[in-house]
Amino acid sequence: MKHVSYACVADKSSAAQAALKKLKKEYRFLDIKKDRDRIKAIVVLGGDGFMLQTMHRFLDWNVPLYGMNRGTMGFLMNDFSTENLRDRVRDAQDFKLYPLKMYARTMSGQEHTALAFNEVSLLRETRQAAKIRVTVDHVVRLEEMVCDGVLVSTPAGSTAYNFSANGPVIPIEANVLALTPISVFRPRRWKGALVPHTATVHFEILQSAKRPVSAVADFTEVRDVESVEISEHRRRRITLLFDAARSLQERIIKEQFMIEE
Q1: Which of 11, 31, 37, 48 is catalytic?
Q2: What is the DSSP letter of 152?
């Protein structure tokens, strides 16, 4: 059995648990709880959703994550294999991802903060469309947007919900964020915008009692919001590791040309 200076975490799915069992037959991993100071990387088995959870879980550890796909899409993951794990992790390319910070204030006056590596989205809660005022860096850009919602996406998250909402796919090293409407009714022809990654985006919910809106940062939801402020949090980051042949940058470029793997 080969000793490695990595820990390993796995989703509860049968595919991820089977993969963990195979790896443990060949490698002796460090213990997450007992060996934290010795861990050089964490191997993550599962899909993109589990990787996102793991990114939040280990955000403050300053340890890179190397994912192997045992889920569906596996956009944030590498191919699964039990061979040459030590070399694959050692030689992998690293990509640093910075989260968005969401500050939300509810109609009752409660204040909430949360981080998002993919996107922060605002969504209507009832049958009535939401009415939202959009401000970027203290300048009102849309006095009133009538829509199902709106989102702000990072480059890494631009291929997820943002892409489904017809937002642009953003290269990982581009210093911009996507501001994308969800089923916009007014203004008729507004398709969204790209804003500098240094920008602060502020959403004010108009008629919030009549047209309630929830805000979601990755998987943290705050209901009945009155205002939401979003900015990139450069003091927090996570490092993902990718095999050279399947780098995150190359995958995002392929998505822009709609090339299936």
Answers
A1: 48
A2: E
pTM to 2 decimal places: 0.91
User: 133-160 b/e with 16+ CB inside 10 Å = b?
Assistant: bbbbeeeebbeebbbbbbbbbbbbbbbb
Comparing C-alpha atoms, which of 106, 113, 110, 73 is closest to residue 220?
113
Contact 116, 158 (CB under 8 A): no
Q: State the virtual CA torsion across 86, 87, 93, 97 in degrees, nearest 10.
A: 0
Which of the residues in the chain have pLDDT under 50? none
User: Quick one: 2-97+237-256 is in which CATH superfamily?
Assistant: Probable inorganic polyphosphate/atp-NAD kinase; domain 1 (3.40.50.10330)
Strands lying side by side in the sheet with 149-153: 193-196, 176-182, 149-153, 119-124, 213-217, 220-222
Domains of the chain by residue range: 2-97+237-256, 100-232
Q: Is 79 a catalytic residue?
A: no
State the CATH architecture for 100-232: Sandwich (2.60)
115: its two tokens: 């981080």
Q: Is 120:100 a contact under the CB 8 Å cutoff?
A: yes
Question: In this predicted structure, what is the pLDDT of residue 62?
Answer: 93
